[in-house]
Design a protein that fits this description.
Layout lengths: L1 E5 L4 H10 L4 E5 L10 H10 L4 E4 L6 H6 L1 H22 L2 E7 L21 H14 L5 E6 L13 H10 L4 E4 L9 H13 L4 E4 L8 H12 L6 E4 L1 H5 L14 H4 L8 H11 L2
Parallel strand pairs: 1-2, 1-3, 3-4, 4-5, 5-7, 6-8
Helix pairs in contact: 1-7, 2-4, 4-5, 6-8, 8-11
Bound molecules: NADP nicotinamide-adenine-dinucleotide phosphate.
Pfam families: RmlD_sub_bind
Keywords: NADP, Oxidoreductase
Family: Belongs to the dTDP-4-dehydrorhamnose reductase family.
């Protein structure tokens, strides 16, 4: 089956397409392939020319700090371009996958299910939530997965948070993680597995594709040190208030639940299990 995609050369897209290429044929519309998704007309032409029944829309303005300063660009890429893609999918009857973020929530609840109301704090998150609304308005044609801090073996382009921490620990530098914060990092290989099943079942609506149990970034640092054999004394405890002072606001307790996706028989790796896979793949 053919899949028309955007952002397939990014951190998540490049791994998902590598893992799914035996099952699907991908066509990537991205800056790298000469297509700017904010060029609404040329996107519409490319959509009309394609007979792919599914669209993986993974391109986004992903600079969380930059979005606070450049509201217009983030809105144009994450909302207006997504709205145009959704309109094309509605017109042509294509199914649309969109990747949303755990930052959709305000982090004040103990945990979050798919039907909890979003209340994004920062501008990046607000634009991503608006984009998701356009996709969900497609009804049966719209599929939104929420992911958190995606990581993988051998990241390309930008480094994931795991490899940023590993780089510092490797060179004997300390890393600090908040111990009063919760997150649910996503092993990117699990996204590929989840998408295989979601496509097969013609799924629509929202799914949380995240790990369980939730952990703090401080705990994540300790797990990384443990699995990759770094000195655990280099992992320092910080507070959420300290670590995010003067930065784009993000949810403190982003403990999204993954029961809906695991009930489909998909194994979502815990953070430690995901890291063991990364270690095996990087040998
Ligand atoms: N990384 C995270 O922590 C995280 C967390 C939650 C959700 N997400 C979501 O997951 C998706 C994938 O994220 P990622 O981290 O893999 O992204 P990424 O590595 O930052 O890559 C972004 C992709 O978007 C493309 N792109 C950006 N602006 C474009 C434009 N105007 N026209 C065409 N293509 C454009 C880039 O194309 P070029 O490579 O050609 O420049 C790149 O392929 C995004 O929707 C993001 O919002 C990410």
């Amino acid at each position: 089956m053919k899949i028309l995609g955007t952002g397939l050369s990014g951190l998540v897209g490049s791994r998902v397409t590598a893992l799914l290429s035996p099952d699907f044929t991908f066509e990537n519309l991205s800056l790298e392939t000469g297509v700017d998704i904010t060029d609404l007309k040329s996107i519409s032409v490319r959509f009309e020319q394609s007979d792919a029944p599914w669209v993986f829309h993974m391109a986004a303005y992903t600079d969380v700090q930059g979005a606070e300063k450049d509201h217009d660009t983030a809105w144009k890429v994450n909302v207006l371009a997504t709205e145009n893609i959704a309109n094309n999918c509605r017109k042509l009857g294509k199914k649309l996958l969109y990747i949303d973020t755990d930052y959709a929530f305000d982090g004040k609840k103990e945990f979050y299910m798919e039907d909890d109301a979003p209340n994004p704090l920062g501008w990046y998150a607000k634009t991503k939530t608006e984009g998701a609304k356009r996709v969900l308005a497609l009804g049966g044609l719209g599929l939104v997965i929420r992911i958190s801090n995606p990581y993988r073996a051998n990241p390309v382009g930008k480094k994931d948070f795991v490899h940023k921490m590993m780089e510092r620990l490797e060179s004997g530098q300390s890393v600090t993680g908040a111990s009063d914060q919760l997150f649910v990092p996503t092993f990117i290989d699990d996204i590929a597995e989840a998408l295989k099943v979601l496509i097969k079942t013609n799924a629509s609506g929202i799914y949380h594709v995240v790990c369980a149990p939730a952990l703090s970034p401080y705990e994540a640092g300790l797990v990384i040190a443990d699995i990759f054999g770094y000195d655990k004394n280099l992992v320092q405890k910080g507070t959420f208030a300290q670590m995010f002072a003067g930065r784009a606001p993000i949810p403190q307790y982003a403990a999204l639940k993954n029961d809906k996706i695991t009930s489909l028989g998909i194994h979502m790796h815990s953070f430690a299990e995901g890291l063991e896979e990364v270690k095996k793949q990087e040998v």
